[in-house]
Automatic annotation (TrEMBL):
The lineage of its organism: Eukaryota, Metazoa, Chordata, Craniata, Vertebrata. This is PLCX3 protein. CDD domains: PI-PLCXD1c. It comes from Polyodon spathula. InterPro entries: PI-PLC_domain, PLC-like_Pdiesterase_TIM-brl, PLCXD1/2/3, PLipase_C_PInositol-sp_X_dom. Residues 4-166 form the Phosphatidylinositol-specific phospholipase C X domain. Gene3D superfamilies: Phosphatidylinositol (PI) phosphodiesterase. SUPFAM superfamilies: PLC-like phosphodiesterases. It holds the Pfam family PI-PLC-X. Signal peptide: none annotated.
Amino acid sequence: VACSGSHDSFSFWVDEKAPVGPDQAPVVKRLAGFFRSLGKKVMKKWSMTQNLTFREQLEAGIRYFDLRVSSKPNERGHEIYFIHGLFGHKVRDGLMEINSFLSAHSKEVIFLDFNHHYAMGDAHHSYLLSMLQEVFGRKLCRRDCEEEVTLEYLWQKKYQVIVFYHHSSAENCPLLWPGTKIPAPWANTTDACKLIQFLETTLGERARYGTFHVSQAILTPRVKTIVRGLIKGLRSYLVERNLPTIMTWVKAQKPGVNGVNIITSDFVELVDFATTVIKLNNLLLPAKAIT
């Protein structure tokens, strides 16, 4: 089944007043400190990859969320925040918003992919793992049913959330799936043609792993890209002008064992991204079955 996802799903709001995140290189932290508010305004333009809130993304059809989290420097306790260069909302607030949607839509199933953790010790991980179980409760799909996971099975068990946790602290938690079950190869390029080539190559290798698979249909700015488009920001300088090429590739895909599974994008509202991905599943109907 083809599923639509968002890249850096939480970045619709970032805190310009908070310190620069520990996910950034020391040189970025120094520059942001030197330029202060101006430096953070520029960082905001390049850190935000989404405009829609979690609920708005869910209502638009997004079902996979790319999540990066961190503690805040010099903050007491074990609070965890979303992060992409700058800090976002508390993770708990985001999870509560998602859970509210799921409680109102009992047949919706989502994927939460916690793939980067920064400045987090054992106590922080324990706090987050407990939070996930507290917020979602029986909605969490156990990882020991991997071979049985179909929509019908999930509906029968009333499971609505599959959480992937890319850290060893979750190894002994049966409610969290290891990151190895959802590879998300990253092209790391500003060139749309190179991105498409990378997506095709990695998709062709998917079958050997027998897992979920994320096709990251995103372009990644380099330092010189940011310098050239300093004021415009990620959306205006890089994303908008390359979306037609990326969407042409998306529309040409087929779901299924050897096809696409999860496709992620920046600024999912700029085009009918989620609708386009979801419509690919029409190809799985009996009259149009893929062999």
